Amino acid sequence: MAGEPLEDDRMCFCCGERNPIGLKLTFETSPEGRLRTLWRPKREHVGFKDLIHGGLVATVLDEVMARVILDNGMPGVTAAMETKLLLPLRYGRDYRFEAWIVRGRSRTVETEAEAVDVESGERAAWSRATFVRTRLEA
Question: How far apart are alpha carbons 19 and 23 in whole angstroms?
Fold first, then answer.
């Protein structure tokens, strides 16, 4: 996979506008230069009653980290990722996911991200990942 070109067919589960069951996330850059998205999980995103499935939280963290490197001209694929779920996320609440680049190297990019409960301001999840750089196919 490393070095292979990536092609966007608009079917990404997180941001693809053509994916009928996707999250349809949109992104913006914060004044601090971080990439961010707002996600309000739905009832169908739960694992146990009222609690958002941790795998979906990790998925959104991965997506925002992948997007921050893409938006900085360094497309890549996730090679390794560590995630800590600090608080239970609940459906119907807004969470702000933000990612930033820690270090870019010739073949890899290191990133971090967090999810913050918008209402309380508490950090709900944190992640770091290493991406292997690749090419984006036009």
Answer: 8
Q: Structural domains in the chain?
A: 5-136 (3.10.129.10)
pLDDT score for 3: 57
Which CA distances in Å does 11 have to 19, 24, 35, 66, 82? 5, 10, 21, 15, 25
The alpha carbons of the chain give a radius of gyration, in whole angstroms, of: 15
How far, in Å, CA of 55 to CA of 21, rounded? 16
Angle of CA points 57, 18, 59, to nearest 5°: 15
Per-residue HEC secondary structure of 11-80 comes to CCCCCCCCCCCCCCCCCEECCCCCEEEEECCCHHHECCCCEECHHHHHHHHHHHHHHHHHHCCCCEEEEE
Positions of the chain with pLDDT lower than 50, given as ranges: 1
pLDDT tens digits for range 99-118:
999 999 999 999 999 999 99
> In this structure, how many other beta carbons lie within 10 angstroms of the beta carbon of residue 43?
10
